[in-house]
Automatic annotation (TrEMBL):
PANTHER family: NITRATE/NITRITE SENSOR PROTEIN NARX-RELATED (PTHR24421), NITRATE_NITRITE SENSOR PROTEIN NARQ (PTHR24421:SF10). The keyword Membrane applies. Gene3D superfamilies: 1.20.5.1930, Histidine kinase-like ATPase, C-terminal domain. Residues 312-401 form the Histidine kinase/HSP90-like ATPase domain. Residues 199-263 form the Signal transduction histidine kinase subgroup 3 dimerisation and phosphoacceptor domain. It catalyses: ATP + protein L-histidine = ADP + protein N-phospho-L-histidine. It is an enzyme of class 2 (transferase). Its EC number is 2.7.13.3. This is histidine kinase.
Amino acid sequence: MTRAEYPWLLPSDLAGPAGPGRRRRRTVRDWLVDTVAFAGAAFIGLLAAEASRRADNAPAAVLADQLLGATACCALWFRRRWPVAVALAVCAVDAVAPAASGAVLVALFGVAVRVPFRRLSLVGGAALVSGVVQAFVRPDPEMSTLAAITLGVVLLLLVTGWGMLVRSRRQLVAALRERAVRAEAEAELRAERAQRAAREAIAREMHDVLAHRLTLLSVHAGALEFRPGAPPAEVARAAGVVRDSAHEALQDLREIIGVLRAPGDPGDGDRPQPTLATLTALISESRAAGMRVALDDELTGPADAVPAATGRAVYRVAQEGLTNARKHAPGTETAVTLRGRAGEGVTVEVRNSPPTRPVPRVPGSGQGLIGLAERAALAGGRLSHGADPDGGFTVRAWLPWPA
């Protein structure tokens, strides 16, 4: 239950901070509780006043007892704002007016709920003293002094224990709520870090590819510069290569805009980049590691026709899906499916059958999928993942493949 869902059911003590210079407003639940407490204190006060009337006290004493009891009950409406002061005032009245006994019990309960034990012990001692003084000043004609004192002590202890139990429960709920908020914030931070790491990895890959294209462009442009007398056909062919390389470099540059490269990384621009053509090698490595992997390639057209950025994304999706299957469902069958054609996009799906035995949760699970979703979004595609009805797990991504 949260305050946003049911604000009128929560006590004001659990409703969160009230803001600087402002008191917490009573909720509907607070009004109901205060009304019931007032009614209960008034009922006990009426019983005590009736006992005082039957004890042949003077009418003036009975009237004063009733007025003091009513005043003590009315003071209970301020116990949320001044719990200790109201409780001490009611205890002072209870020493000479038995009609205030119910108000003492309610006020002591409110103090036990709201203040630490040191201040509670002060109020409890005052309530105990007032009960003993009342037993001698206004004795009950139907009960001995010792019995009256014993009954009063038992009632005070019961009310105090109940209030301390409620206070402990509220503190536990507040601690659990704070822990849940902190855990949610940490999860969001981990997700942001995973997204940032995925962006940085994509930026590094795209930077390497862009550097390669620019290098080719520079080489062919240099050949044209140093061979001005080359045959027209050779010049035209070199110019076409320069044009195509410049166009591809421009496409890569558009993709890398907005993605920052992680500072301080070592230069690794010469490393080979995975493509769709290297997917079969990944499947072979997984099989060599003991996995049962089936590849269903339904692509229309050669793998080399798929754009390099899309091929890398497909490779990474398949790689992460196989890694998750190996960690969370070892020994099961895994199927990798490729579908698509130019103009319609590429769909890659990795599905593993349900695990045959319980597998413990691996720390950090889910971060790779967050990175994959970020990679697919940056490539202009989308990614979905989730458990199947039979207990398996499927990772599916669609990526654009221009015509």
